[in-house]
Amino acid sequence: MNGEDGQVNAQSEAAGDVAVLSDIHGNYEAFSACMEYALERGIKDFIFLGDYLGELGFPQRTMEYLYSIRDRYDCTFIRGNREEYWLNYGNDGKWKPENSATGGMYYVYHSLTKKDMDFFAEMETAKVFCLRHMEAITICHGSPHRVNEALHPGQDNTYKILEAMEGTRLILCGHTHVQRKIEHGGRCILNPGSVGMPLYSCGKAQFMILHGDGDKWREEFISLPYDAEKEIEDLYLAGLDVLAPYWCRVTEHVLRTGKIDHSLVLQKAMQYGQEDEGEAGWPDISERVWKKAYEEYFGQEQLYGYDCGFHPEREAFPICKEKKLIYESRWMSLYSDRVQMPDGTVIDTYYRVHVPGESVCVVIVNEKEEILLIQSKRYTTGRMEWELPAGRIEEGECAESAAMRECREETGYDIKELRYLCSQNPDNGISDILIHYYIARAERAEAGFDRNEVEDMRWVSREAAARMVRNNETRCGVSAFGLLYALQFCICMPQTV
């Protein structure tokens, strides 16, 4: 049973069931929706994996609700990196209001009580959880070793931690805000996702229920709709748009879509700060570079009618006056918009294609720094084309999970060391389709590839890949761009090819 529609299973729940919640981030509306669902399922045991408060308004409301749950039910609490921030901050003045980097933390810290601080201080950062006759579980926020260590699939640190586990085969952790299961060597990591700031969930709150199955645990991932607009309203009522201007705007976007997270915008702001102004790094990031980073990620959305101030030069930007839907499906929608151009001219029929699902494209390399290409059967063009593995991100799936799945389906290879490269709109004159590019190392081939889509595959040298693009041996623009980007910035090339 999946809880994504918010429907409660009428079947009685086993006495050993446990709800696991992480990364609430002060989202009272999402937290209360998840708790109400769990309680209706008859659950009375709860594990909380940290980051109880974050960047949202009125944090004491969340804390009081958390205390009420603690007082009525069996709860186990783990300290997250946010609690570490509050406990270690002291009063050294690094955080300040009206600052996108630290204004939100300043706001939350100054709302905390001694009771809250004592509560956080009592928590452990990792422990072994045991319930009755069930198998023991290692629970933590980031990893068993560090609260801020992220456990992602395909990463060496993730596999090393699993291989080093003693006494338990199962780790429960949060921190990444992505709901997922990672298996390796007979051991497993379960991440319930984020209650309050979930990624790749289509804006739904996420948590997990563990069911007792003999002496083992069986997971059930839950995704629930909740009143995100109320939480966004409270964000502004609390004045966080003034205290942390661009962080607040990113928060609003994450709550609605669960796509681009704060860390990406922060990293871009820090990059611009160092390149443009010689800033030392966090928290010394000017609002000017925050603005530049924010507009790079979210600038396109003004075209589609969101009045969120994405374009400071709005009066010199095309404005959508009316949207007319011509065709809609789960794959794409065709619009005929009425658009006013910067000089006042109105185009009555401005055709555009909206693609609701984003996609991934992966450059796979081996130990020889060769690149794996697949020969795809392209019905649309009637051509056999040498390409990079690529495909659509499915609903509820994160980009990196989609990248790993597409590589496995189209090449038979599992991958590791997956690293984000960039994102591109390859046809931005007519479509908003967005492609996320990654590079990864081939780990092992365990399955065949999809013969319906792929005719053949081969490893090519860096030089051969560059020649293929130069000689127009592939007409796939997405693949050509991915190859050139990787060859230019990631894989060292000789001076001539």
Quickly list its features:
497 residues, alpha+beta, five-stranded mixed sheet, 30% helix, globular, disordered N terminus, disordered C terminus
Strand percentage, roughly? 25-35%
Number of strands: 21
Unreliable spans = 1-14, 300-315, 493-497
Rounded to an integer, what's the Rg over CA atoms? Answer: 24 Å
Structural class: alpha+beta
How do the strands line up in the largest sheet?
3-2-1-9-10
Mean pLDDT: 86
Largest sheet: 5 strands, mixed
How many separate helices? Answer: 14
Helix content: 25-40%
Which outline best applies?
A: globular
Distance between the termini: 55 Å
Structural write-up:
The chain has a five-stranded mixed sheet with strand order 3-2-1-9-10. Strands 4-5-6-8-7 form a five-stranded mixed sheet, with helices on one face. Strands 11, 12, 13 and 14 form a four-stranded antiparallel sheet that branches. By secondary structure, the protein is of the alpha+beta class. The protein contains 14 helices and 21 strands. Helices cover 30% and strands 26% of the residues.
